[in-house]
Fold this protein.
Amino acid sequence: AQSKTLNSYREMGDTIFVNGKRLLPGDTLHLGYGSTQDKTFNYIWQKPGGQMNGADEKLKYLTNNFCNGFLIYGGRVDEGFGMMKLYYPVFYDPRNKAVKYNILFLRAIETGEIKGF
């Protein structure tokens, strides 16, 4: 797979700007192929449920069933961990909106797991 370079990534409120393109809540994110040997996605994983339990909670990566599929951008969410709050974008499968996904954008774009940027 050809490697792409991420020139710019930033978040402003619920809007994500990637390489001059804007991603708003409700927008479609087009997927390529997973970057592992069996085409499982290496940089898109299911958001762990509830409070993070540290290293003992294993990440569930997006399977190769999603190759050339899409996810919907659901906006940014915040989670509190004591006095600290984390804000990050989440994505969901329109067939099952209850399951949320996190993405490591830089690597997902570089490896072709995300298309269109």
DSSP finds one helix and nine strands in the chain. Helices lie at 105-110. The first helix runs from residue 105 to 110.
